[in-house]
Amino acid sequence: MRLVRWSTQFLVVAAAALLAALALAASSDELSGADKLRVLYSTQFTFTPAGLPLVTVQLMEGQKEVTIAGASDAGGVRVLPGGDGGPEVVGTAPWRVTLEGGRPAKIRHWVVVARVPASHAEEVRAELARWRGRGLQPRTLEVGTVFGIAGEVLDSREVLVVVDPHPDSRAAVARAAAVQQRHAVETGVHPELLERPQGTIVATDSRGTVVRNAGVLWFAPRGAGRLKVLRVEHGVGYKNHGFEDRTFFGAVYVAVDKTGALAVVNAAPEDKLLAGLVPAEIFPSAPAEALRAQAVAARGELLVKIGTRHLVDPYRLCSAQHCQVYSGAGHEHPRTTAAVEATRGVVLFAPGEGRLVDTVYSACCGGFTEHNDQIWNMRPESTLRGHLDATGEMQRALQRFSGGLRTDEAVGAFLQAASPTYCRISSGERGQRYRWKARRTTAEVTRTVNAAYPHVGPVRDLQPGERGVSGRVRSLRIVGERGEITARGDFHIRTLLGGLKSALFVMTAKDGAGGREYTFTGGGWGHGVGMCQTGAIGMAEKGKSYQEILKHYYLGSRPRRLY
């Protein structure tokens, strides 16, 4: 067995090989550097030599062992303990990667009671004073990032006003619910990294060569090839999209995740990432202009989310729906790749300021999009105002609903309305998206509610409360035999009700021999903020350009090509 150990230098590596590897430094990217781990957790932007953003996306975590191999078009696998531009080991793939001495991160969890743009200092001071007046001891944390590109300074920084830190995430969630109940505000939980996880990553090739490094090991293909991450326990992916062996462009690194196990992460240029991401988010058979709109929206989501999510993880984004679904190389489609290339570097800016639009989107709005602040605990955004998914004659036919759907009666009438919206006439509707029904028994609701609120006991009644402009339920009073709770938050309410497709629904209850049954008549799939993917297809089928589609869903926005 040959042993290669990395600390401040390699041992048992031929001098000629080392000098040859050091010559590669000229092609290094900004992820190289002495403090590799600091960079992995950093919120700073990094760029490839071609000027494209380099994005790190989680592929797997919580693993005991993973295998990295070269794809069929690769000439081998390089192991780079110091990142690109540093010394390397070229072994005989596949590489089996394990962890020694894994220790979890130290994290504390804060209850978030307010979110304020970093530039609004007076508002931050007012929020601090308000929460001190309520007998709490608030402090601030900053998330987001700021960077300059193409003459624009993009600032996504936000100040979180937080209270009551807890070492346990479940205790923080319970405390957030209590604060929400008492003060009638939207709350959240924000993790703060106090100490990074620790451990030694050990890679062994098929001939017994061993490379060891503290915290992280990088893997890169030789030449322009790709890497394959092989199934060990579950494979790559997540339960809603399946698990499988997958290949990836760019580099892959294995690091210690927050639980003290292995995380596998892909560091890929933005164009390659979007090429694998866009076909996972929209039907590749959709019209070209809808695909271009999706490419711009997905690009904006990538850039805006940097520094706001996964701040205690050794990556910037995940590959699930929490961020955006990413399937890696080999899942590209010529039509979606063409859309990414045609819109290279194009993002949307908010009116009158150098700030990127948070180009969120959902599968189907159900005919009416929603205000961003009605779904999430965040400030109202002028570009993300809810409105009918219709223009021109279609909008005039639905004029009676244009003011919003804030009552049960208005929602019921809208769900029954025959007048078309873009997502109704779209070929992307494909059944059970635009309109749907779901039934839940009292026993089923009790199970999901008591998983989150054990003190409520068997559920006796459900009472939808306030609604957003689109009619989506924003609060739900749940009455149980031992107590009651008012739940808030779009996804939280949908989960408590057994995973409804959206919170745009009306509810009826019927008592029977087996107990009470609730029937939910609803519309749409997802949160409904920003672009309706189904509606974008409908607009494109009506001859609208991708710029017109984006303008319809992100009000007042202006497109600009940054790179």
Quick synopsis:
This protein is α+β, with helices and mostly antiparallel strands and about 575 residues long. It has 3 domains: about 5-105 and about 195-340, no CATH class; about 105-195, Alpha-Beta Plaits (2-Layer Sandwich), CATH 3.30.70; about 435-525, no CATH class.
Structural class: alpha+beta
Oligomerization:
single chain
Low-confidence stretches: 1-34, 232-243
Mean pLDDT over the residues: 85
Largest β-sheet summary? 7 strands, mixed
Quote the distance from N terminus to C terminus: 48 Å
Tell me the Rg in angstroms.
25 Å
Q: Count the helices. How many? A: 15
Would you count the extended β strands for me? 32
Shape: globular
Q: What's the number of domains?
A: 3
Percent helix, as a range, is 10-25%
Sheet-strand content, in percent, reads 25-35%
Order of strands, widest sheet? 1-15-14-7-4-17-20
In words, what does this structure look like?
The chain is α+β, with helices and mostly antiparallel strands and about 575 residues long. The chain folds into 3 domains: about 5-105 and about 195-340, no CATH class; about 105-195, Alpha-Beta Plaits (2-Layer Sandwich); about 435-525, no CATH class. The protein is built from 15 helices and 32 strands. Helix 5 crosses helix 6, helix 5 (about 270-280) crosses helix 7 (about 335-340) and helix 6 (about 290-305) runs antiparallel to helix 14. It is globular and about 70 Å long. The protein starts with a strand and ends with a strand. The model is unreliable at about 1-35 and about 230-245 (pLDDT under 50).
